[in-house]
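Morning!

As promised:
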Amino acid sequence: MATFGMIEYADASPEVRAVYDDLMATRQTDYINNFWKALAHDPAALKRTWESIKQIMAPGALDPLTKEMVYLAVSATNQCGYCIASHTAAARKAGMTEAQFAELMAVVGMANESNRLASGYQVEIDERFKTGA
Amino acid sequence: MATFGMIEYADASPEVRAVYDDLMATRQTDYINNFWKALAHDPAALKRTWESIKQIMAPGALDPLTKEMVYLAVSATNQCGYCIASHTAAARKAGMTEAQFAELMAVVGMANESNRLASGYQVEIDERFKTGA
Amino acid sequence: MATFGMIEYADASPEVRAVYDDLMATRQTDYINNFWKALAHDPAALKRTWESIKQIMAPGALDPLTKEMVYLAVSATNQCGYCIASHTAAARKAGMTEAQFAELMAVVGMANESNRLASGYQVEIDERFKTGA
Amino acid sequence: MATFGMIEYADASPEVRAVYDDLMATRQTDYINNFWKALAHDPAALKRTWESIKQIMAPGALDPLTKEMVYLAVSATNQCGYCIASHTAAARKAGMTEAQFAELMAVVGMANESNRLASGYQVEIDERFKTGA
Amino acid sequence: MATFGMIEYADASPEVRAVYDDLMATRQTDYINNFWKALAHDPAALKRTWESIKQIMAPGALDPLTKEMVYLAVSATNQCGYCIASHTAAARKAGMTEAQFAELMAVVGMANESNRLASGYQVEIDERFKTGA
Amino acid sequence: MATFGMIEYADASPEVRAVYDDLMATRQTDYINNFWKALAHDPAALKRTWESIKQIMAPGALDPLTKEMVYLAVSATNQCGYCIASHTAAARKAGMTEAQFAELMAVVGMANESNRLASGYQVEIDERFKTGA
């Protein structure tokens, strides 16, 4: 059992329900996953986090699938079990194929490796990489 | 100064030069960045790492720009200064616009935030996210 | 099952019991949590770690509740499941309210986000932040 | 030099200036630190991040000094150089004494140590720590 | 249940079986652990990862036990549950005693602590530590 | 410049000098590195940290070189610049050869890669790895 009970729609305050409603409408689903039901213990955080994620994950210069895969890449790097499970599901819903998942994990793994090689060998930043925009 | 001197092409062994040559040909550049010049102290690691990165970063189910942005997302999450600088440059070379960079960073930041909220609230994985392939 | 069995009080050596006794007296409890029972496989580490934690967590310039919340903030950042569970319990015992927990998590989440934005944007340290004590 | 030039007030768009103005008014300062000047390349992220931080760091169930110290604890755990420098300055401005800083670092260090001992020893969560709210 | 079913030997393609065979021969075991059975969903990654690990973990300037303990140290630092369990088993198979495990964890814990103290106190690198090879 | 000035031997209190003296005697050196001079702002932390490190890094079931290499492996994983520089120097002083350093980094890199593959593929712990001591 989680430390915090999940706040179900039926038990939610109007403020929390408003977020749940917007989340379900935006994502075209009737399912509220546990992350939100836990965060609902803090309605201000629920609303703020949802509004930010809604804005950040909307289609823009990057398409939704790319954004979901980046989210999954960060979650795998941080080794957040909940986040890996939920964002693997979200990325699949957004169209991620098994082949794309496999390539994504390969890049994530290699980046985590070379990050440590660069640090361990104390590699200096190349002058040409320092040039500002 | 880095702990390890950089091994320049002129000073490199044939084994190291072969990797440098393949890297420059593959990336269509005449520049070897410091990461490789440092790693060249271990020719086996240089060759193994380059062969892996060459294979992983090649176009496939994911395009090269997406792969570079994922690499950058991991590097920013790990806060590897060298890697952020070099992969920001690589992603730009692969076509990343300023707008794409900004959206990428927004996703990376939010994922790092929600990863901790999920962990801190001890959110249990939804049953539907546990369904295997 | 954990890799290491838990060393119960009844089975503990005098050296381990002395730590258990001091821990229970200091914390005014008759419960030894699993962390200590596992660490008891290395009596020197058990004693050293307990002595350090006892010294560090004692009231001082920071009060015990603040210290417990900082401990929880670090554990959530590192995504250590055991530590989040045990230090949430400890912080509550020290008086943390639900409102304080929620604000704590909000700060932890935001700090993890802005840490990556600062790194990803390669922000230079302001001159005024470099001024030594 | 950072990858992105800093956007100074004089060069900022009205949208960016509005955030800068609110930030300076809220913090009672005439100084905009580099984090914001870099993030200003993405006005939407600038506004969203500032609004979130303003809301999260406001006095509430936790006082501003405690919040700043938690922010610093997370930044030290993540080893974000910019963030450590800027939030050490912010915590001092909020009243952090040298003794409080020293105790804060001691807790951060010990939490990072015991997090790994708990994970490395594969300690199972005590039943009593699983009891939900 | 894991997201990806495990690919058993009986169900594996010739390409995957070749890796399984080499792994079992190299490690002198008839057991394939879950990591490989999951990674087998991407035969190219399976082969690449196995070839790299086979090369890296072979006896060389460092003996196999030392390498397994370093692998475990990294896994404990990253708090990867699967990796801690599997590499604790591997290190024991390579000869790690309980006393060695305990000392290993003590070093891992202390390094994680002092890493944050060094960062939090913003300690500058000593000139003598900057001298290159 | 670091936030905290370094406390030199000539300016140190008797309590701090006692730690410096013991450190120099134990390590057979007349050099105090910056980490300790910064930590000396908190004499209790200085003494506690030194006593712990002295105990942990002493020869035991693991030899000093192995311990220094594990310390370096953790520091590279955490990407702590100061710690990588100082512990590379310490490991060399303890006898680490260039070949050993290269193999160490290879293991560190690969462990960081496979940690994320295990997490990303949501690999379940093998039953045989769960068997307790």
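Chain E touches chain C at residues 79, 85, 88, 98, 102-103, 105-106, 109 (CB under 8 Å).

Hope this helps with the figure draft.
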